[in-house]
Sequence to fold (463 residues):
Amino acid sequence: MTSTDTRPTAGPDPSPSRASAWTALKPLILRLHFYAGILIAPFLLVAASTGLLYAASFQIEQVAHRHELTVPVGEQRLPLTQQVAAAQAARPDGKVTAVRTPEAADASTRVLMDVPGLPESTQLAVFVDPYTGQVRGTLDSYGGSGALPVRAWISHLHRHLHLGEPGRLYSELAASWLWVVALGGLTLWVTRRRGARRLRGLLAPDRSLPGARRRLSWHGSVGLWAVLGLLFLSATGLTWSTYAGENVGEVRTALGWTTPAVTTSSGDHAAHTGEGVHRHGGPAVSVDQVARAGAGEGLSGPLEIVWPAEPGAPYVIKEIDKTVPQRLDQVAVDAGSGQVTAVLRFSDYNLAAKLTQWGIDGHMGLLFGLANQIVLMLLAAGAITLIVLGYRMWWQRRPTRGFGEPYPRGGWHRLGWAVLVPLILLVVAVGWFLPLMGLSLLAFLAVDVLLGLRARATQQEGA
Fold:
């Protein structure tokens, strides 16, 4: 087979200093992109494949649990009190923690309960027909999004491969390196020499090129279209991670960027008088009164009404419509008097808290509904395509097949101190903030050094 070098070629630069800096940096970026692509791509491939499945999980959930989620449309809905009572009669062993009102005319009411034996962050959801009070079934409900079993299983697969906390390391490693691979690839692609067809060659693959170069053209063009989405997924994915996520949380706290919460303190009056509960320990007002209090503050469905966490604590009503235009206001309602004690409007969130909420909802496919989920599927499919093409190109150009020499090492020797010192400081800072990336980068460097020593020894033996 004829040897073909498919490596990107830097274009001419009128500035000698800039050309010199890029000439020195390019081998470093190439080797970093190479090692990350070969060693981290398997984790990225798993994350992209499971992410593609998760983006479709909302539609899968609607089909798999259609009986519990939907009801025949009736004439008039029963009071929430009766619906909750029906759920309690069906599961007397459960303690009601919240109720979610129907999103549509043909949707069921979801009564959430704490039941002994359920996994962490999981509650029992009892689905009640709001028109007849008939219980249509019970399912486990996971997390704040209320994921039902099929979506929860896919979510756990994407998050930690059903391996628990140790499994989360894979997704954090993938998110930590995704932005590096994406930006490195973008830099290499846009600095290639394309002549008069430069812009068209960047945006669309050149099908006239021979095999290996055509695959490189596809790899670069697909990456260019996907890069912004991949950067978004990397940044938002890190907020869920174990170690980097903790650092992100500390930064947000230090800068006052945390997400606000509605005030749920019981207040002096309730604390001293015991007002707010029956003499038997239950709330003094009904859930229907609480719902009316929330409606008086402008809250509209779908709603989640959370039961008081302790005697004297208020009900909390939350708007849970995360699709644009979002409805995410919250109010606290005194459990004894039914009066609103606190209001939190989403419009009052600070900008960082809003961006965090939008980022999380976008990552989960909630922000723009079905369109959001389709974009996530396309991004996942694009990432899978990039990885497959990348491995294909590596397999064809590896030295044993004659497809060009390995990317040269030692490019940092040609960097001036004015560039090298800030670069080292930046790498150390990023490695500290993203610990798994820092540790894996040290592993890459160790492998590179060992390969260099081996190559030097081979050359000396040959001499």
Observations:
- The chain has three domains: 26-55+163-252+370-462, 70-147, 260-348.
- Strands lie at 95-100, 109-114, 122-128, 135-142, 303-306, 315-319, 330-333, 340-344.
